[in-house]
Amino acid sequence: MALIGAVILLSFLVSVLLLRGSVQRSRRGHLPLPPGPKGWPVLGNLLQVGPNFHQTLYNLSKIHGPILHLRLGSVDFIIVNSKAAAETMLRIDLKFSSRPRTSATYHVSYKQQDMVFTPYGPRWRMLRKLCAVHLFSNKAMEHLRPIREDEVTRLVQKLSRNSSSLVDLSKEIHACATNAISRVLVGRRVFEAGDKAQEFKGMIEELMILASSINIGDFIDVLRWFDLHGLVAKMKKFHQRFDNFLERLIEEHRAGLTETGSANGDMLSILIDLANSQGNGDVVALTDADIKPLLQNMFIAGTETSSNTVEFAIVELIRQPELLARAQQEMDAVVGRGRLVTEGDLHNLPFLQAVVKETFRCHPVAPLSLPAWSPRTSRSMAI
Ligand code: HEM
């Protein structure tokens, strides 16, 4: 019985896929698409998506040109592999500022109510404006500078205290980046380099694996309901854990604010103030349902990216001692041995700047931009 059921289900799936494929082919036939490699029926170019997808795309663009088309299952992707073309497309069509819906963006990112994945519109503008003003503006960067410098000083002092023993540098750098960001976001260091820090690092790593895994249901509609790899179940579980973590932070922060009766100037205090206000003009009153996704965005986007980049820079300098010696000579000449290097020294350290730029070039932690999507064309565009 079970076998007959399975055969009926399978033949139903195959016919739906073939029907859908032919409908889509006839629709697609009317649309001018850029060139691209030929794909398989139903799967399209899915089999070409390997672990180093960015390198595959680079190689394909050498054959097909800087703007190419891939079909992953039933989803069309336009790959824009040139800075000029990407800028033009984003400038001429703001509607491409939305992001496609995938199981990860939906189940992990609060049903796309966060800043990164929310569709283009008033909410998109309001959340970005909040971050642009309070986190990324020159004024905010300067205001937050003592926090970054203090966390780096703590790291360097800790390393120098333990200079004769083995240190897990990766763990320490990650704790440093996370604490710097948590102080900016919620006004306090959330992690010491102990079990809690490891647990948080583990959560971010788990998310990276979940978000970069191919969920076949995202590309072949009819399979969406089956969660064949069990990824959706894992995403929901992950989301619950991260949501609990943020909930705890907000509760603790609210309790602290009540005690002191004043805001601390960190991002969460600003967001809570806005949540207590009625909202005005472009900025609408926020609720916890807005605050949590925003904090999640920053914790996820800002911690692993920063610490991995620093780690890569150090690995490269260790692998190339002549470059390390040059960087040290430059710092000895400009800063001397009597104090630590500060952000104010950076413009006098061109070699160090070159090391940073070269690290971004050789080890981009996010080699592909986040995909853009236009509801008007229903096509995805990766840049
Ligand atoms: C070495 C450090 C970092 C690297 C290499 C990096 C890289 C990137 C890249 C490549 C993107 C995708 C851009 C796009 O597709 O349009 C991105 C987006 C983003 N990053 Fe970073 N990032 C870093 C640090 C940070 C930090 C420290 C924060 C915040 C505290 C942050 C917050 C964000 C946010 C919110 C987005 C989404 C922007 C949007 O949707 O418009 N990043 N980052």
From TrEMBL:
Q: Does the keyword Oxidoreductase apply?
A: yes
Q: Which SUPFAM superfamilies has this protein been placed in?
A: Cytochrome P450 (SSF48264)
According to its UniProt record, which cofactors does this protein need? heme
Gene3D superfamilies, A to Z: Cytochrome P450
Q: Where is the signal peptide?
A: 1-18
| Classification via Pfam families | p450 (PF00067)
What are the protein's GO molecular function terms?
A: heme binding; iron ion binding; monooxygenase activity; oxidoreductase activity, acting on paired donors, with incorporation or reduction of molecular oxygen
In the record, the note on similarity to other proteins reads: Belongs to the cytochrome P450 family.
Task: List the PANTHER family.
Answer: CYTOCHROME P450 98A9, FLAVONOID 3'-MONOOXYGENASE
State the name under which the record lists this protein: Flavonoid 3'-hydroxylase
